[in-house]
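Retro notes - structure team

What went well: the batch runner handled both jobs without manual restarts.
What didn't: labels got mixed up in the shared folder, which is why I'm recording both outputs here explicitly, each with its sequence directly above its tokens.

Job 1
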Amino acid sequence: MLRTIATLAMMVVLFSIVSTGCRPDDAGTTASTDPALATAAAPVVKLAAPQDEGQKEQIMPRIADYYGNRRGALSLTFDDGFRQEVADAREILDPLGLKGTFFLIPMHMENPAMGGNMISWQQAKELHAAGHEIGTHGAIKEKLHEATDERLGFLINESWRLIREKTDVTPVTYALPGGSRATENVRRKILEKHYFIRSSAQFPIMTTAGYGNTDRRQWDDERTRQRIIACRDEGGWFVAIIHSIVGAGWSPFKSKDEFRTHCQWLDSQKDTIWIAPMGTIGRYIRAREAARLEVIERGENSIRLSIATRLEPADVFQVPLTVVIPAPQATSARATVQGDAAPANALTTRIAEGNILVDIMPDGQPVTITWSTATAD
């Protein structure tokens, strides 16, 4: 009898853990230190009550792990904001349509002693206008985890304030300067203004990797490709950390062509790897985790559903989520908001590997998806 009672008690504890979805992060603290997770939970799918017995076996839509139902994600991040580094990176990325995250050191940009080595605020605006992300970085001289609370707040929040004031862009991502550790206190201070940190302490699915050559590391393109593919196959998010492309800066490549060849290979992998700035991928992940998908109505070749999330602020987390609808026989599909056939309310749909993919805003608006099949009259 005692063994039975103990077993039942253990089952209750396990059910409680699974139900709350509580999982410690890398530093041994719960993800509740992230304000974006205050209302986040695992994606919920609510099904309408079946109208008849046959509908119980019908399709089960889901929200894709990554945009476009890709298997993994990758972000190219560039540290410091040196003028030559940014120019070289854009020379390679822009023709390929690849977008990166550029972590700037605002205090260096404001410092005349840097001798014009940093990009200007106007060039930062141009980066943003070209579709790249501007993030916040810190100077390497001071280790954040050793700073007092007052100094820590100044180092992080003043950099954030300068970027917003000078560019009219509110940065949402932060990269710790070299030598600083992402302690709980440092993460908490960063997350007062930012939402995403380049650290697996916040995103356990993230793998970071330094690019280029140093005294202790030689660039190996083939090995890096293998790491990226392995990360993709595990459903992970690979984040490249890049400094100089060529020249006297930290961790340069042997030539621009060395980095260009790698980026051309990345471009060839875009069908299975979502390549986007850090903030773009971070927004999607957090919105997906907090989203609630509700199936409202079903038909033979149609489904009506909605997605909603309570994450705030909406201007950060209202981003399209890819809904995957299994439909092996579908040959064409159409999705409209509120069933309105007006072109302005038509959503982008595509068919891939037996699934209908629809990008839907998590704003609670009902969306109707209809499709034709090869056997339809």
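Job 2
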Amino acid sequence: MTCPLAHCHHGPVKPIVTPIILFAPFFFCLCGGPPESAPGPEGPPKRLVSLSPAITRQIQDLESEDLIVGVTTYGPEMKKKTAVVGSLVRPGAEAIALLKPDLILMSDEDSAVQRTELIVSMGIPIKVFKKNADFESICENYLELAGILGKSRLAGVKLAHYRSLLEKARKRASGAARPRVAVFISSKPLIAASDRSFIGGAVRDAGGENCYSDVQVPYPSVSLESLAQRSADAVVAISGGDIDAIRSDLGRYGVDVKRIRWVRISPDRLTQYTPADYAGSVDILSGILHPDRGR
């Protein structure tokens, strides 16, 4: 295998343009669950490999980017040259081993599709963070990460700020009618975000009612016919191409697409399970769903 240093980068790893890859854990079923966390180093780690773009963003937010020696593709911009150890779906065990990390960080969000069997067998300490259902569970993972990094005090200060931003966005929608909202992370196949996802939590906090609140899986594959039957007031997608495709196809079912608000939100915000991005997404969504309430 090529030395991971051959894939070092300065600047963005790669813009997030493929929601199918980012959300594959929610609609591909592979055998086995997430690997169990293995004991990490005593004291704060000095060499980290992050197998989750969202975890990488949280490490940056906690002012510890200098500890990262390896990341996957589709990650945030890095300030220094950082080895790319593979894709989110297939991180490379040999590339990771060559970096000699003292801790590998990953999330149960990605466990259904992330192939980590060889990585687990290497014996390098691994920390697996639990899935994120809402803002509070995102914050719990953030605080746990901060504890590992020795940044608990900083995390407390930052969370107070993010909670303040979130509360302000929630108040904007308080008492207002709740428009019905459908959020899609992909148009082909058509993948929605239900109330069981953290994206669904953002819709609720922004004062919206999820069109797929009755679905029991976080990211269901749905049909255009089901969307036509659910009377959406707003449709949110993470790419302009997805919005155009959904709007064009939905019109064939006799739906007046002109009465629907069509909204694109950057995947760099909406798909990232970090406290900062969650609060930012709610702020954006509440402003869109309740424009008469101000910002």
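One thing worth noting from job 2: The chain is about 35% helix and 15% strand.
We'll revisit the folder naming next retro.
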